[in-house]
Design brief:
The complex is a heterodimer of chains A (742) and B (226). Chain A has 742 residues and is of the alpha+beta class. Helices cover 36% and strands 23% of the residues of chain A. Chain A has a seven-stranded mixed β-sheet. In chain A, a hairpin with a 3-residue loop joins strand 27 and strand 28. The two termini of chain A are 45 Å apart. Chain B has a single domain, classed as Class I glutamine amidotransferase (GATase) domain (Rossmann fold). Chain B is 24% helix and 24% strand. In chain B, 58% of the residues are buried. The chains are: A alpha+beta (742), B alpha/beta (226). The interface between A and B is medium-sized, with 30 and 28 residues.
Amino acid sequence: MSVNNTRPITPELVAEHGLNEEEYQRIVELTEREPTFTELGIWSAMWNEHCSYKSSKKWLKTLPTEGPQVVYGPGENAGVVDIGDGDVVVFKMESHNHPSFIEPYQGAATGVGGILRDVFTMGARPIAAMNALRFGEPDHPKTKHLVSGVVSGVGGYGNSFGVPTVGGEVNFHPRYNGNILVNAFAAGLAKADSIYISKAEGIGLPVVYLGAKTGRDGVGGATMASAEFDDSIEEKRPTVQVGDPFTEKCLLEACLELMATGAVIAIQDMGAAGLTCSAVEMGARGDLGVRLNLDDVPVREENMTAYEMMLSESQERMLMVLRPEKEAEAKAIFVKWNLDFAIVGETTDDLRFSIHHQGEEVANLPIKELGDEAPEYDRPWVEPGTHSPQEPHVFAPPDDYSAALLHLIGSPDLCSRRWVWEQYDTLIQGNTLQLPGGDAGVVRVEGHDTKALAFSSDVTPRYVEADAYEGGKQAVAECYRNLVATGAKPLASTDNLNFGNPEKPEIMGTFVAAIRGIGEACLALDMPIVSGNVSLYNETNGEAILPTPTIGGVGLIDDWNSMARIGSADAGDVLFLVGTEATHLSQSIYQREILGEETGPAPEVDLQMERARGEFVLAAIRSGYASACHDISDGGIAIALAEMCMASGEGATCDLAITYPHAALFGEDQARYIVAVDDEWANMFAANSEGSGVSFERIGTVGGDKLIINDLVDISVEDLKTAHESWFPNFMGQQQFADAAE
Amino acid sequence: MKATVVQFPGCNRDRDMIAAITKIGGIAPQLAWHTDTELPESDLIVLPGGFSHGDYLRAGAIAARAPVMNAVRAAADKGVRVLGVCNGFQMLTEAGLLPGSLMRNSGLTFICKEVILEAVNTKNMFTERYNKGEIIRCPVAHHDGNYFADAKTLNQVEDNGQVAFRYAEGTNPNGSLNDIAGVFNAEGNVLGMMPHPENLIESAHGGEDGRRLFESVLGVLEREAA
């Protein structure tokens, strides 16, 4: 049976493809006639927000992306950064928000699968993964179901594939009730001289389809990810793809074996908009045309149309341009791994994207224009408003500081995430040096005696909501701080920008200001953005998520024997605060959890101070006289001290300089660390702080089984642990009960 | 001494296992592929962890029927030592080379954490470098590690001294009967265990308690070779 390509193009059909009238007119011009149905699908796949970055491109161009350490910046499947000795780290973060809300297990699983493929397409073996997850309020009826599905989906894919998940974030807020966020990060290790990119070279060369077969799953997924949700969301379930981590693992091994043979000229994974996007990218980058014969595409369903094949987002697939003389060798590798290997087309010199199906040419489009001529919008935006500062005395102090600390340490956003990360394989590959629960995940570099890489993902959405510019800076600064706290020199970062509908000027204004903040911070802290992803239209029934520009950072530890950990303080160590007494309670966790309000400005980030203190702490760790280190973030110094005590099992007795007790303990002023120093080195540490002009305060001593802060806090470490560890299992335990009762 | 690691599609702790054997034994193991019908001459055959064939159908079920398993069985029958860790343990029970079976964890989720083990039977070439009753640290990482056997089989396993390791002091992570973490076959030359000794062999792992298992089995082999 042949399938026809003659469905009439009506205004309704154009609208269903997420294209406006103006965009469609431009398409007709570029096609030089009315497009066929398949062609309309191809245009819409290339021109949707997800693939074309049409609303964000103008602003993304302003981000710093260069530096001597950067081998490949944005534009490839993932960023590539030099770590010395001929090695590079390849990494990226990408969202899978819309699919995960519709079908949490498969949405999250395929998010992990997609980002892993981005990394190994470039020739790197994945060595670490992270996941930044944001859910609605805990009491919302969908939240537990989504947490349970997303966490098992992340684990189900990553564990089976065999990559350690070493970090991430889990947060709750009512503004994610209708749109959760699943931002998946992956990093891989490769040799600098064997990196593969998508740019094809050479005319008349075979275009090869690799991996799993094509089905109808995910048809139109990228277009779905470029629209707001409404109440008809359940109908979108069929647009979510289904993941197969086993095939992906085989594909990884087969691709790495294939690359080692020298057979690969160019390679591109089939992610969003599948065959369309990968083929256009390889051709357009290399100034070549591509001719595909869909009759040769391996399919797992009958009677698939050209439209469906071109737009399918079936997972675990790759497209490659092959050196023809290596065909037999290449094919044998894929046969060994029981994967499809099919020559489906060739490169041409006519710069056309020509698709043949059942003896008919179903599409013939200009290949460069498909990507390059995508609309670029300068969407109207308004500068976000600001809030006037609030002095500490306007915030009520707690009746009981110990009770307040116990409450905070056991609250949804500050409690232990053990329930989550114990479902992830954190140890596989045998190189994990620091698990989730500290400042950053750390993995040693295989084949090197002392080097290790640190990974952290960070953003504080309530700050970005209050002040997008400062919030953008803060996301980068906190990431920098978390890397530094392990003894890693921050190298570069990836950004995953999650926002609402960019057609609303307020949302667009937040986006613009956040990018300005991120750019300034990346420049000041020397963490260029080397890859990333934008996820817009995170809105349901008109309500947007909190603006959430997640930053994933990578740092290099020269010698992991001298790295610092959150929990490595010993009894007798002296505790130092690097930084000054806190005063900022606006938008703090204290304000939200204890006072039930979220008001005022975000804390300001002084980037010069951030860098000076960071470099001082890094030097102290690298010189070996910091026995433990932790950055001070959500919840302030009291929370940071409690976290260090729980991690080491040692108590601490502290005497802080205090003006306003509640602000000093729970204020969220930036650029601050706690460093534990062996008593023997304490004077030297103090002298060095003074010498380098970095503010510091000697705040106490490690030891005992209680955390004591002035005459305000007196809690046993056991009680802290109980409060900290209970919330998540209790919360999800109710879920299991509810599921069983159904 | 000659060790051979058998690789199946979907294995993912094979690299960890190869690294551990190489670091502790001083020589990289030989490798075999799941479609091989013969194995190189070996004193120790290792079935590593992972998700062979995606754990589709049942964990280890498809791998247990791979061509290479006939060669593994033949070698085991001749007294060659066979070690199966995690997915390898699941393959050995699916292949009938070890008693019992491994069901979904009682908590129904994948679990990756460090537990403590009691070395139960140390009169064996796999465990001789541990002291009887010694408590050691070891990580687990699995979805299907809940050891089950019918009452008769379980009694036999206990009575014959086939229990190699038990989860100690309330750390049973998966609901295994009698806290069983690892079992020998009746002859004592096949060991299957859910925990991953290969992930706790050096200071970078934060401990070396897993090392002695490899020292035992590789050391015995060295003596025999001498």
